[in-house]
TrEMBL record:
Keywords: Cell outer membrane, Membrane, Receptor, Signal, TonB box, Transmembrane, Transmembrane beta strand, Transport. One of its GO terms (cellular component) is cell outer membrane. Residues 41-144 form the TonB-dependent receptor plug domain. It comes from Ramlibacter albus. This is TonB-dependent receptor. Residues 1-23 form the signal peptide.
Length: 666
């Protein structure tokens, strides 16, 4: 969709909203990631963001939106490209999902590739910390991030409802708009949404050079950090007594600067089509059956000073069938079948991996037994994964090769309510992941890592053993949750320097890095809690959070790179009548536990604040908000960003940013 037409569609939707004919859409805030049975208590540690909490934490990327969640940091490649890092694991060890189905893009291939999702168009985000390989495959060996929308309605929508968001931010003069409209009867439901977000170079608390068209200037802006993203989607469902069947189509566009180079930009295009249906209350041994299928066409072009360069394509399809059996006493469970396939290609100067084809077929079982003191779970998954190099039509260094892997994973968990206000959870999982195409077959220059990457075609299945234990106390509004975890890899596939140097076609020397299996261990703790301080006219809560991860290459005894340091944060949240306010901070300790040759990262504290006001305007509910990020305008660099190592000083975190916005629901 052209930008002019998209802005027109958003304007029309906003006009419809302003007309007062809509009612606030409701999406149940039920945690579904990590438990296919849909029960309220989840044994694995899960965080959820929705409603005002998501609105006040939303950033332009998925990674930065989640970055202050306990156990979650981000890859931060500037303000436009950032994937979640969960318990120190990133890339293809963290599965990004869309409504529980595959989310196909190229974000795990390179740090400068953005996730093809904008948080402004999301209803809810769920983060499963710890292995999710049982349900979602080996690429979720470290966790899963599920981005949830209502583009395929699953329940009846009576009448017409809608929501609209308008926003402006000072750090990059961002302007954003989004609108959603839903309607239906007891027999059908329809959904449409659209968004547009644009901004210039981001202001930072330090002078930085920027060279464009041969002219160098020095400004307090992060060079080449401007972006323009837009998208639209439509979907609908036929509803019947025992379920639904629906279709949706989504288009997403993102044109952004990569910040690693002053004049390199990326033009991303992604189209996704999805089918989903469910039959419930079938009787007999089969209680329900759920089907999900999707196809994604993804492409992005990297431009240098406006001239097209490397083109990345990733086209994928996925199918998931889940059957829930009738309870056998207190035992309930599901059997699932999953199939995925994708074709990847890269053409141009930065084609560091060959054309490839990956096919996955899997079966999994998840069972849960209720007891008088809690519940226990047990499950297993078996996969067959084919990863084929198809060579390259223009690069002779890539040859056709084929590998087949058969990963198998098993997991067990328990939840024990050992006192009225206390719960104890424990999880044990053996998870296996097949290597990705680039881990096997890479051979070329990769600007994002500043290295010539070499794959390991003989690499085996990556295996890990994960142990997680947690305790939770809850009394009214007061809560405390503590988790401790350890993950040990017998053959963690790490990208390590070889000490060699190779020359690009332009004669530029690059250090050689190779994908090498090593023994590795990740261990850490996570803490979160809420204390109600006041409840007399004015409600006042204190939210606390902290986490720490320690990752070690057990083969060499050295630290693993890009691990978040100790982090501690607190937020005071107040409300009185229609007013709401919050102020808080997040402190990151100095990270000097780095491998030889890496730079330590200085510690820092970032303050933030927000003010909200709710009001009714006829049938409309309005939420006005003002938010300040990095209120002290502190200069800070992310320890989990590769740019902190490969381009030191070039990509600090954004400076002080004031965001003003309005969310309207009808």
């Amino acid at each position: 969709m052209h930008n002019r037409n998209l802005r027109g569609a958003i304007g029309a939707a906003l006009a419809a909203v302003a007309g007062g004919a809509l009612a606030q859409p409701a999406l149940p805030t039920v945690t579904v990631t990590g438990n296919p049975l849909g029960t309220g208590d989840v044994i694995a540690p899960v965080n959820q963001l929705s409603g005002p909490e998501l609105l006040l934490r939303s950033q332009s990327t998925l990674g930065e939106t989640l970055a202050n969640t306990p156990g979650v940091s981000s890859t931060y490649f500037g303000p436009n490209a950032s994937r979640p890092v969960v318990r120190g694991l990133d890339g293809d060890r963290i599965r990004v999902l869309n409504n529980g189905g595959a989310s196909t893009d190229a974000s795990s291939v390179s740090y400068d590739h953005a996730v093809a999702t904008d948080p402004i168009a999301v209803e809810r985000i769920e983060v499963l910390r710890g292995p999710a390989a049982l349900l979602y495959g080996g690429n979720a060996i470290g966790g899963a991030v599920n981005v949830i929308d209502n583009r395929i309605p699953r329940e009846a929508i009576q009448g017409v409802s809608g929501k609209a968001d308008l926003g402006w931010a000072s750090a990059n003069h961002e302007r954003s708009a989004a609108a959603l409209v839903e309607g239906g009867t007891s027999k059908f439901a329809l959904h449409a949404d659209a968004f547009d977000r644009s901004g210039g170079d981001v202001r930072v608390p330090v002078d930085l050079p920027c060279t464009r068209r041969g002219v160098t200037t020095v400004v307090r802006r992060m060079c080449n950090s401007a972006a323009h993203a837009s998208g639209a989607a439509a979907g609908g469902s036929l509803l019947f007594d025992k379920g639904y069947l629906g279709l949706s189509a989504r288009t997403y566009r993102n044109d952004y600067g990569t910040v690693a180079q002053d004049e390199v930009t990326i033009g991303m295009r992604s189209n996704r089509y999805a089918l989903e249906g469910e039959l419930r209350g079938l009787g007999g041994w089969l209680q329900s059956a759920k089907l999900q299928a999707g196809h994604t066409d993804y492409r992005h072009t990297e431009f240098e000073a406006g001239v097209p360069g490397t083109v990345f394509r990733n086209n994928g399809s996925d199918l998931r069938v889940e059957l829930k059996h009738a309870k056998l006493g207190a035992l309930g469970g599901v059997v699932g079948l999953q199939a995925e396939g994708n074709r990847f290609s890269a053409d141009g100067a930065e084609a560091f991996a060959p054309y490839s084809r990956t096919r996955q077929r899997a079966m999994y079982v998840y069972e849960e037994l209720g007891t008088g003191w809690g519940k226990v779970s047990l499950g297993g998954r078996y996969e067959q994964v084919d990863v084929d190099s198809l060579g390259h039509p223009a690069l002779a260094r890539f040859a056709p090769e084929q590998r087949r892997f058969t990963p198998a994973s098993i997991a067990a968990g328990a939840l024990w309510r050992f006192a009225p206000q206390w719960e104890f959870t424990a999880n044990l999982a053996h998870s296996e992941r097949a290597p990705k195409d680039y881990e096997l077959y890479a051979n070329g220059p990769h600007v994002a890592t500043g290295a010539w990457e070499i794959g390991n075609a003989s690499a085996g299945i990556e295996k890990s053993l994960n142990v997680d234990a947690g305790v939770q106390w809850k009394s009214g509004h007061d809560t405390v949750r503590f988790n401790a975890f350890q993950t040990r890899f017998s053959n963690y596939i790490a990208l390590l320097g070889t000490g060699n140097t190779l020359l690009t076609d332009d004669g530029e020397p690059l250090p050689e890095f190779a994908y090498t299996p090593v023994r590795a261990r990740f261990r850490g703790v996570e803490l979160s809690g809420n204390k109600r301080l006041l409840e007399a006219g004015t409600v006042l809560d204190l939210q606390l959070r902290a986490d720490a991860v320690r990752a070690t290459n057990l083969t060499t005894g050295e630290p693993l790179p890009r691990i978040a340091p100790l982090r501690v944060g607190a937020t005071l949240v107040a409300s009185r009548g229609p007013w709401g306010a919050r102020i808080g901070f997040d402190t990151h300790a100095r990270q000097d536990r780095v491998p030889p040759g890496d730079r330590p990262t200085a510690g820092y504290t970032l303050w933030n604040a927000a003010l909200t006001y709710r009001m009714n305007a006829g049938p409309a509910s309005l939420l006005w908000y003002a938010r300040v990020d990095n209120a002290g305008d502190r200069l800070a660099y992310s320890a989990t960003s590769i740019l902190t190592q490969t381009a030191p000083g070039r990509a600090p975190l954004p400076g002080r940013n004031l965001k003003l916005g309005l969310q309207a629901g009808f």
